[in-house]
Amino acid sequence: MASGQASPHVQPASRVKVVLSAAGLVLLAGVVTVAAILEMKASRAVTSEPQTRVAAPEPRPPLTRAEEAYVRALWPIHGEVERSSVSLAQIFYKTRDMGTVQLKSRVDEALASYRRAEKWLGTLEPPPSLRRSHDEYLAAVRLFQKSAVEARRMFDDGNDDHLRAAYPLGLAGSNKLRELGERFWPEEFPPN
User: Are 152 and 170 in contact (CB under 8 A)?
Assistant: First the structure.
């Protein structure tokens, strides 16, 4: 064989490689094209689905004069009830950050405050539109009173179980107070 001639065995192998490589590239291009088309269809389907928007809460209608007067009269009672919560004091006692004498003093102060609040609430005359909320507020104050009375029992017999029994009552009162507070003073409890 002359040095300038290619071997007959080399050419067919080389042609096969070129043809197979070309076929592979065409196949790969087809797979990529199909995948891209399917991806575009899927993303269009997701973006074309109707977007559900959370409707903005409807603005609260303005309070009537009677409602406004009631809410203003309730505000100082609300402040006193909130300040008198004994839940935190109970937690401090349980973690030994507060002594029994301090806890008893706070429970007694809170109970006196809740009793004053109940009497003060009895002097208010809510408008008919707020009668139910007024009754619920009074029920929350009474839950706080029951919680404080139960907590005081610990000082009579030394049994910490009274704190465990008092806690759910105070928590229920707190939850009810927060719910009512959001109705009366929507800006008092900003969203988290």
Answer: no
Residues 6+ apart with CB under 8 A from 134: 70, 121, 124, 126
The 8-class DSSP code of residue 63 comes to P
151, 146, 136, 147: which is closest to 78 by C-alpha? 136
What gap in Å lies between CA 137 and CA 97, rounded to an integer?
A: 32
Paired tokens of 20: 């197979």
User: Per-residue b/e over 95-111, b at no fewer than 16 CB within 10 Å?
Assistant: eeebeeeebbebbeebb
Strand blocks (E) in the chain: none
Taking the model in full, what pTM does it have?
Answer: 0.65
Contacts of 26 (CB under 8 A, 6+ apart): none
Check if the beta carbon of residue 86 is closer than 8 Å to that of residue 151: yes
First-to-last CA distance in the chain?
88
Residue pair 124/141 in contact (Cβ under 8 Å)? The answer is no
Per-residue pLDDT tens over the stretch 80-134: 998 887 666 666 666 677 788 888 888 899 999 999 999 999 999 999 999 999 9
